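task queued by scheduler; priority normal; single chain, no ligands, no partner chains; default sampling; output format set to C-alpha cells
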Amino acid sequence: MDIEFQTSVSGGKGLISLEGDLDNEASGEALRRAFNKIFDRGERTIVLDMDKVQIINSYGIGKILMCYKRLQAEGGTLMVKPLKGFVKETFELLMLDRLFPVDGSSGGGAEAEA
C-alpha cells in the first residue's frame, strides 16, 4: 500500500501534512515524494505539519534531516508546525527543536494544491 502525504502551497510556503507513523521505508519514501513535489515547484520554505504523527524513529528523523540538508544547500528553510506528544519529546531529546523553526501561522485555506 502506497502512503501519500498531502501537500499544498500557501503564503509563499510549501506545506506537507504528515499522517500516521514516520518510522519505516514506506513512510520515509512518501515524505521524500511529497518533499520533491514542493521542492521541484521552486518552493524553498517548506513546513512539516506532524500533528497527526504518533510515532517517529531514527528512520523518520533521517528523512526529515535529508529534506533539511537539501533545502539548506539551496538557501531554503525547513520549518515545523507546533509539535506535541511523542514527536515533540523526540525533537527536544535530539535538540532538533533548536534546528527547525516553528511556523506559527494558521493553516488556513491553501492557495494551490501542490
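post-processing summary
- Helices lie at 25-39, 58-73, 85-93.
- Strands lie at 6-10, 13-19, 45-52, 77-80, 112-113.
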